[in-house]
Amino acid sequence: MNTLSKILVPVASVLIFLLLWEGLVWINDWPKYKMAAPSDLPAAFWKFRWLFLEMGWQTLWRTVVGLVLAVLLGGGLGMIMGLSQMIRSALYPLLVGFNAIPKATLVPVIALIFIGEHDFNTVLMAVMISFFPIAVSVSIGLSTLEPEYRDILRALGASRFTIFRKIALPKTLPEFFGALKVSVTLAFIGTNLVEIVSPHGRGLGALFDSGKTNGDYPLMFAVLIALAILGIFLYYVVVSLERIFAGWAERPQS
Amino acid sequence: MNLIETKGVHHAYKTPMGPLPVLAGLDMAIPESSFCAVVGPSGCGKSTLTRLIAGLLIPDEGEVWLDGELVKSPRKTVGMAFQNPVLLEWRNILENVILPLEIVAPGMPRKQRVDRAMELLEMVGLKGFENKRPSELSGGMRQRASLCRSIVHKPRVLIMDEPFGALDAFTREDLWQTMRELRAAEPFTGVLITHDLRESVYLGDQVVVLSDRPACTQYVLDVDLPDKRPLDILYTPEVGDMLHDLRNQISIAQNRGEVA
């Protein structure tokens, strides 16, 4: 695909999606309190433009901070699990069990432990929900390293750390970025969970909640679209980082 | 003087069913700057042997001597090449070849590293490909680059575990010739594990036949051929006799008796 069609194709698919949505609402003749149509959204965005900017920023920075911490936590866990089979068998059941817990049930728990710490709680939830894929993929990437890769340096007397830095770490980067793409969207779910559920919350989730309280359906749908836009934005930030650091893994298509 | 010597080497792998002996009384002597090809039935412990010489494994019993020293751990004077070229996809060909120098000679100036790598790449016919990614090269070219990497730090010993095993027949013959050219230009002593008897005779100064597992040295053939070996030397009666001899020994190793 050339550059022009790389931009035009996704734009066209978004437009078609909006048309179908508009058509669905129009054919069924749904009133605004049942479902908002895309044509209702610009007015909602405009009316609450300053709130959108402020709340969008709140959601964005907390998600990004959560994601960065999830990378550190997940990457660290993945490394020690990838390098030691004993730690791997010790931690896996705990991690899988923790990941299976619906995170919504944890909102009241952390809200009670850290009362009033809204920023902290939001970031914490983003971390808890998004570190798991990173930990798993990094540990798998490290533990499945073919022994020959290790031997080419080990035969020269290289230390474990050198082998890790020169071979294992770069070789795991494609798996890491694959997981990070999943974690980006998970982190948004985490921040919004806390924003929506906790009373007097901030961020887009809180804006959604106030839309619900006031029966303002266009506002609620506008928030969902704003979240989708932020999600797409962060996703492509990860994609460009991947191009820079793991672009070598992309094979030219023939 | 023998650069590599193994004396009564015994080694067993631990398995859930108890120890599995793979080497039992292996004796080898490889003179300096010679080339030793090792053949034997599948699964007879040939790869274990390479890991023992490289110091990646320590034998349960017996001794491995390298350059007058008892081998207890890996050393910088060894180079290794495998059937899988194991090139690092995130480095181009030049940087792949340079990799061992980063470990062995961390203080070496960049220009000197590049010059050394380019010298070898030119010798194996990869000049002009130094900035390519490994995935852009054919299997034979990747293996050439892998060979350059295994000798870039001027090792005393080059240990090869079926480096040509995955290549097609004609590419393999090209690589044999490249290998002989490298040997003429570089000072290493070679140990080659192979399944290909023609390869063992064409490249080797001696061919060691290992018995079935647990392996010991069953037979040693001295390859009395000139250093300059055109490919058609393989079709002389002299080489034919050697190949026949080796084939017989393999059959014995497989417990199938002599070929009629």
Secondary structure layout:
The complex is a heterodimer of chains A (254) and B (260).
Chain A: H1 3-28, H2 41-47, H3 49-83, H4 85-100, H5 106-113, H6 118-143, H7 147-154, H8 160-197, H9 204-213, H10 217-246
Helix pairs in contact in A: 2-10, 3-4, 3-6, 3-8, 3-9, 3-10, 4-6, 6-8, 7-8, 8-9, 8-10, 9-10
Chain B: E1 2-15, E2 18-31, E3 35-39, H1 46-53, E4 61-66, E5 69-70, E6 78-82, H2 93-104, H3 110-123, H4 139-151, E7 157-161, H5 169-185, E8 189-193, H6 197-203, E9 206-210, E10 217-222, H7 237-253
Helix pairs in contact in B: 2-3, 2-4
Walk me through what this model shows.
The complex is a heterodimer of chains A (254) and B (260). Chain A is globular, with a radius of gyration of 22 Å. The model of chain A has no long low-confidence stretch (mean pLDDT 91). Chain A is mainly alpha-helical and 254 residues long. Helices cover 80% and strands 0% of the residues of chain A. In chain B, 41% of the residues are buried. Chain B contains seven helices and ten strands. Helices cover 34% and strands 26% of the residues of chain B. Chain B is globular. In chain B, the strands form two sheets. In chain B, strands 6-7-8-3-9-10 form a six-stranded mixed β-sheet, with helices on both faces. The mean pLDDT of chain B is 90. Chain B has 260 residues and is an alpha/beta fold. The A-B interface holds A 146, 148-149, 151-158, 162, 166-167, 170-171, 173, 246, 248-249, 251 and B 51, 54-56, 73-76, 78-80, 82, 84, 86, 88-90, 99-100, 102-104, 133, 135, 149, 153, 159.
